[in-house]
Fold:
Amino acid sequence: MSNTLHLRSLLIVGASAVALSTIASPAWSQNVIEELVVTAQKREEALQDVPIAVSAFNQDALEKAKIDGGPNLVLAVPNVNFSKGNFTGYNFQIRGIGSKLVAGSGDAGTGIHLNNAPLIANNLFETEFYDVERVEVLRGPQGTLYGRNATGGVVNMITAKPIDEFEAMVRGEIGNYSSRKLRGMINVPLGDTFALRLAGSYLKRDGYGKNLVTGNDADDRDLYGARATLAFTPTDDFRAYFMWDHFNEEDNRSRIGKQFCTKDTGLANVGGVGYSAAAGGLIGQIQRGFFTQGCQATSLYSAGVLGTVNSQATLGGLFGALGGFQTGDAYAGKIQTSDVRDIESTFDPIYNSKTDIYMFNVDWDLTEELKLTWLAAFTQYDLYTRQDYNRYVPSTNFNTSPNPVSALAGVPGYAGIYASLFPGGVVNDPQNGAFNRFTTSDISSANTEQWSHEVRLQSAYDGPFNFNVGAIMVRYQATGDYFVMFNTGTAWYQVNNLLATGNPNCNAAAPCVAIDPNQEPNRSGHNYYDAYGPYDLRSHAFFGELYYELSDTLKLTGGLRYTVDDKEVENHQVTLGTPGTGIGGPLPGTPAILKTKFKETTGRIGFDWKPDLGFTDETLIYGFFARGYKAGGLNSPCSGGAGVICGPASFEPEFIKSIEFGAKNTLLDGTMTMNLTVFTYDYEGYQVSKIVNRASTNENIDAKVKGAEFESVWQPLDGLRLNAAIGWLDTEIQSGVSIDTFNRTQSNPNLVVVKSAAASNCVVSLASAQTALTISNAISNPFALLGVCTPASTAGAGTNIGGGAIAVGTNAFGGLVSDGVPVGLEGKELPNAPHWTISLGAQYDWDFGDGWNVTLRGDYYKQTETFARIYNSEPDRINDWHNVNLTLTIANREKGWEVGAYVKNATDEEAITDFYLTDDSSGLFRNAFYTEPRTYGISLQKRF
Structure:
């Protein structure tokens, strides 16, 4: 091993993809590849000397490949996939391992680190890279040095630190969509001991689409970042820095892309049994609405998929029918605009995000062979987003007088009550405003604080034995809400409050169902859905790696990590529609604080060998067995209610047993690097989420993963650079069954989906549905059908009613009730795990004399088709997609000038990267996430 603690210069060996510096080294030849020093093993090493599959990118490489932020890393790293999530989060997936769960107490599968400090809540998909030394992406479980929740790998952003000489930079950029970017940096030495580095980034642009209702831009950007780093170096043996990093965004960013729905109008009849024709067909219209799930399970690419949800299948639509506010489907006949960037929302999206990170790092050389590191970090993260829930306005208005067929039709004087509360059909909802049409909105918010402390002791002895040992603690506290607010629900409770208390807008104890009077909900109201459960994580770990050199070319590595994760969630049931006011308590029979604790040992063992092969300049061959771990957690609280089948209270951890072999080669007198990695995973307890009855239910399944990765850079001629990063991945679920809420009957013609009184769905036999409809017709009461999903007894529980659908009991009509047909998962692929990712790049530099240089670069990326969910059905399929980026740079490094031009997504692809399926009570629409459209611009930069 090296007998120095710090590599102070770049080591001239091979490297990976566009990670390399673009300046040729004169030490060997003009074509020799120069590479980055990385800290993938939390010590400074040349990239080709690290026995880990890692890609690294310095600031210059990021800019030339137009990797502006975290989402763009997918374009340059093999076997990586990225997409935004529905609740302001994202899924950064490495080798099929990421985060497909939705839970406040859940963890990501890819660890996000800033200067080696873990960040649980972060802005990876929002912020842009600026003034960074490098960005490292480690592939594969990093269960020892990085520890918890790094089962997929690690993304580690290393910021530029102060140096002992003055330098500064300012960069401006303009582009289409009225894009304006400004970046800057200044580094100032403060005597012999201190140095200060200030950096910032600003982005403002117009929206990629329009809100066709307000006429304003949709999905614009207005954000900035600022960073200050103060370095303190009193002696050669002691180095410290304090860093403050700030991010702020206030704009109309769209949390989601387009909303996909092939409208389900409901069964034309139930096995030949027709709907009631009484009351002019109004009864039959409501009945048919109870035999629709809102949206059909169709391909994302089928005709009619940009339709609208059948509101009768939603909870809001159910309230509309019960109160007589809405007759039929609020979106009847409506089709969305075909432009995937446009929305049709009652109001413009609101997106506010703010983060402050404070970090203190000390490196102390205790001796020439021992270095002690202490890294402390504190993060405050605040997020608030609000948007139209359905993203399109209804085609029909509320009734100006109540539908004569309603649950309140028998209330004396109801027509007068309706007219007084809702004049002209206008519902005055404090959260959504006064509208005479079905209006819904949601709020996703979070407020978090995180402390972390890490202490490491590492050696650099001349002998064969060395070590890297340490301990870390993390305290993470999060609170926040997910509100869904709909005016038909508020109207329903206003009517019932008037009848029960005389005050439609009461906010008091039972029998009042509290109406929150504030536009910004404060959790006092029971007229909206609020998922609220403050979360507290305490985690600590002890870790260490030992290194033993059997010879000058062969080294053994062994590492262990012992982790304790202690999680607590305040147990608050959803209070929608329950009498009273304020935050709900726990469900009966459950504790006020839900707790779970995990204690696990992870680690790795393996070798790296540098043989003299003769046909290469230098070769590193390595092989490792590793065990990774991601903690389990607690599911969202169940809403409860008639006909609602709640999921399990918690979910188990994930474990990965990985075997990986790799070879890193430098060839052709240092002008080529060629790296190959093969791996296989035994994946136990993969955590995946589905939304059931307005609550996230996370399940655990087992899978096998295998794959290979090829990375190469070749500089065959002076000025010419070619690179490739190719990933192959094969994933296979090993066992398990799960009910697909999008297709509960699995298209069995003898089974029927029916709505419950909570607007969730259940499955009954065709004969049972016919019986219930016949009775409903006979008594002229469409709302009797809401009892079909409610078991009146457990008689018949466990009976297969057809296709494997198992009954949970018998309803009041004498029919068996089931949650649906289980789908066998064995042999299916993991979500968002394309078989191939291909990244190809070419760059050519021309020298024009007097220090001027022109660089032309092109990058091509392609990923093959994948599936968004574990069921691998046609509605889950996401097509393959590709991306082309082009850049032109004219620079004079001696004078510090640089002029650039770029085109991103040059072919203007509209690629879906993932989607989120809502639950039964929302109508099972899919929120899709897209790549950005074609953008282009020019830049001017000056260095001092």
In short: The radius of gyration is 30 Å. DSSP finds six helices and 52 strands in the chain. Helices lie at 59-64, 282-289, 315-322, 414-421, 487-501, 766-779. The chain has a mean pLDDT of 91.
